[in-house]
Amino acid sequence: LKMSWFWLYLPLHLLMATCLCHSIKAPTSSQESFKTDLFKFYHSLILADGKEITVHLLKDIPKRYYFVLEEGRVLAPFSITVTPCDVPIEWSILVYKPPPGKATPGDHDTQEVSKPQKASSMVSTIFNYKGNSVETYMGMSSHSALYLLEFLSTERDTHITVYLTMDTTSGHLYPELPLDPRIDVIGIGPTTVTLAWKHSPSVLQHRESIQYCLLVNEKHNYKSLCAAETAIRSSGMKLPPTLALSLSPYLLEPQQVMILSNSELSIINKVSSGEVRQVCMGTRNTYTVPNLSPNTQYYFDVFIVNLLTNASAAYTGTFARTLEEPEPKVTELKDGQVIHVVLDGKKQKFYSLQYQARHKKIHFTFQLCRGQIRVHITRNGKTVASENLSGLRYFSLKGKLLDTYLVQLRSTEESNSSVKVQASPHFHKPLFPLLPESLKIKSFSKLRTCRSVTIAWLGTQEESKYCVYRKRIEEDQIWKELQSADRCSGPESRHKSEKVLCKYFYDLNLQRAVTTETIKGLEAGTLYLFDVYLFGPSGIPVRYHSKVVKTRKKC
């Protein structure tokens, strides 16, 4: 900055003036005020022009910065933007203007002493603010002046950002907000909220370097992007410096989940107070937030971010409560009827079945076909059973005539799950055959050859039909075959060439109810998938757990 000799020597002479005031006579209240102001100017840091800086504040300890307007400029404009990044702060702007006329340092010192009240009037407060909003002060000066900024946090240690510019015509560090910066809620559902906002003028001018980013949380709105990041960090998590930098997946923490689809980046932070979602959607000014919880209040903040400078501006945040989940449709269960239920894992919705008892004893049967499912059974509104299903599961319940049973099913994983359900009186002919203690298939490593495999499985005390099927598979198909197998499907879904044999057997002594089978005609060093199907009186099959065995490569 171009400054006169007066400003170059200002700190020294301000200190001299203070000392002279002490040596002449007891200070008046005006002199005390003036000396305090001089002390503030003397112990301050220079505030750089055209650069956003981060200022760290300690509780109850003020921090001061000063700047000088360039001499010789006519109606010099300037602006100061202060962004609190956490708790409310207090900040003010003081200005020191030299007395009219030119004076030597000695004359100036004498004038300070002899006319303290006039000197005191040279320092004045032109702006003060207390709060946590982003505030911008626009000023204009027709002559040289020294400005002091004072910041104070009375709640706790915190940090803020400060931006001073004396060039208000060549552009802005921060993206511009529209005249109406509100966010409109244009649609609400049980799990979605649709938002819209007016375009920023910066998008039209710098489309390639500007983007909108949305923050969703269940706590409250944030008045700036740095305030949001500070709040999330205080929950015990590290965050990328800004949403713009969050575009790099390498900055993600273990508690963060990144979802990239349709050119949108979503980052979900798992914090103690719920999820905090960050979504950047380019320059689109409408967005539907998916996968929300029903009947929950969410807060939405939109930030316009300059990707080149990482500077941002905040729209006025809004909030909305999602709708309650509509009551699920209830399907009526009839005696002996088998219902095949397919559950959508992504929606995590309950599927409800209702059964009215015509007998005191009721028998519920569940055959898990695919995935993982949790079942919850109530009788007249009171829970009588609740657990995760595995394979084939029976529930025998005793109640009263005309009791109402409600069966609720829900997938516990993101992929689709399916189950077969039957409700019947306890004495009704069973839908499924009598099952052995285990549905596992065992193979004997020592009996493996290059051309054959020996397997074994448990039977029951009831004579039943067992059919064995084999399928050649590759190494990279094992996981898919085992995970995607439909355990409710029968041999009708298999190719005829995969059938090995069918046999009947039983043993009244369960200790001896075991059968073995040697499968011949296989190829050396080859993987095979073996399945066993058990058929009961009703003809509905139960599939044993698939077994993968590899024949020996050399014999």
TrEMBL record:
Entries under InterPro entries matching the protein: FN3_dom (IPR003961), FN3_sf (IPR036116), Ig-like_fold (IPR013783), NDNF (IPR019326), NDNF_C (IPR045805), NDNF_Fn(III)_1 (IPR055271), NDNF_N (IPR056225)
Cellular compartments annotated: Secreted
Superkingdom classification of source: Eukaryota
Keyword annotations: Glycoprotein, Neurogenesis, Repeat, Secreted, Signal
Keyword ATP-binding among UniProt keywords: no
Annotated signal peptide: 1-21
An annotated GO BP: nervous system development
Fibronectin type-III domain segment(s): 175-312, 433-541
SUPFAM superfamilies, sorted: Fibronectin type III
Gene Ontology MF terms in the entry: heparin binding
Annotated Gene Ontology cellular component terms: extracellular region
Entries under PANTHER family matching the protein: NEURON-DERIVED NEUROTROPHIC FACTOR, PROTEIN NDNF
Function as written in the Swiss-Prot or TrEMBL entry: Secretory protein that plays a role in various cellular processes. Acts as a chemorepellent acting on gonadotropin-releasing hormone (GnRH) expressing neurons regulating their migration to the hypothalamus. Also promotes neuron migration, growth and survival as well as neurite outgrowth and is involved in the development of the olfactory system. May also act through the regulation of growth factors activity and downstream signaling. Also regulates extracellular matrix assembly and cell adhesiveness.
Protein name: Protein NDNF
Organism this protein belongs to: Phainopepla nitens (Phainopepla)
